[in-house]
Design goal:
By secondary structure, the chain is of the alpha+beta class. Helices cover about 15% and strands about 30% of the residues. It is built from 1 helix and 3 strands. The protein has a 3-stranded antiparallel sheet, with no helix packed on it. The radius of gyration is 13 Å and the shape is globular.
Length: about 70
Protein backbone atom coordinates (compact mmCIF):
# COMPACT_ATOMS: atom_id res chain seq x y z
CA UNK A 1 0.00 0.00 0.00
CA UNK A 2 1.30 3.47 -0.88
CA UNK A 3 1.30 6.13 1.83
CA UNK A 4 -0.41 9.16 0.27
CA UNK A 5 0.07 11.49 3.25
CA UNK A 6 3.14 13.02 1.54
CA UNK A 7 2.48 13.81 -2.15
CA UNK A 8 6.15 13.27 -3.04
CA UNK A 9 6.37 9.84 -1.36
CA UNK A 10 6.75 7.22 -4.13
CA UNK A 11 6.32 9.91 -6.76
CA UNK A 12 7.18 9.03 -10.29
CA UNK A 13 6.57 6.37 -12.88
CA UNK A 14 5.29 3.09 -11.41
CA UNK A 15 5.92 0.10 -13.69
CA UNK A 16 4.60 -3.44 -13.25
CA UNK A 17 5.71 -6.22 -15.61
CA UNK A 18 3.43 -9.24 -16.00
CA UNK A 19 4.04 -12.64 -17.57
CA UNK A 20 1.96 -12.67 -20.74
CA UNK A 21 0.85 -16.28 -20.19
CA UNK A 22 0.22 -16.53 -16.44
CA UNK A 23 -0.38 -12.90 -15.40
CA UNK A 24 2.20 -13.37 -12.65
CA UNK A 25 4.07 -10.22 -11.57
CA UNK A 26 7.62 -10.51 -12.90
CA UNK A 27 8.87 -7.12 -11.67
CA UNK A 28 7.67 -3.87 -10.21
CA UNK A 29 9.61 -0.65 -9.82
CA UNK A 30 9.11 3.06 -9.16
CA UNK A 31 11.25 5.55 -11.09
CA UNK A 32 11.53 9.20 -10.08
CA UNK A 33 11.99 10.62 -13.57
CA UNK A 34 11.75 14.24 -12.54
CA UNK A 35 15.48 14.75 -13.13
CA UNK A 36 16.69 11.56 -14.85
CA UNK A 37 15.00 8.97 -17.05
CA UNK A 38 18.06 6.74 -17.64
CA UNK A 39 17.16 4.17 -14.91
CA UNK A 40 13.67 3.79 -16.44
CA UNK A 41 15.06 3.42 -19.96
CA UNK A 42 17.58 0.81 -18.80
CA UNK A 43 14.86 -1.16 -17.01
CA UNK A 44 12.59 -1.12 -20.07
CA UNK A 45 15.43 -2.41 -22.29
CA UNK A 46 15.85 -5.41 -19.95
CA UNK A 47 12.16 -6.46 -20.05
CA UNK A 48 11.65 -9.60 -22.13
CA UNK A 49 9.78 -9.16 -25.40
CA UNK A 50 6.09 -10.01 -25.15
CA UNK A 51 5.67 -9.11 -21.48
CA UNK A 52 2.68 -7.03 -20.41
CA UNK A 53 3.67 -3.69 -18.87
CA UNK A 54 1.44 -1.46 -16.77
CA UNK A 55 2.40 2.17 -16.14
CA UNK A 56 0.98 4.66 -13.65
CA UNK A 57 2.21 8.10 -12.66
CA UNK A 58 2.04 9.58 -9.17
CA UNK A 59 2.69 13.32 -9.34
CA UNK A 60 3.42 14.60 -12.83
CA UNK A 61 7.00 13.69 -13.65
CA UNK A 62 7.36 14.46 -17.33
CA UNK A 63 9.98 17.21 -16.88
CA UNK A 64 12.91 14.79 -16.97
CA UNK A 65 11.70 12.51 -19.77
CA UNK A 66 13.75 12.74 -22.94
Amino acid sequence: MIDDSDPLNNRGMHVVVLNQHTGMVMAQRVFDTYMDDEPLIGFLHRVSSGRIMIFAVKVSNTNGLS
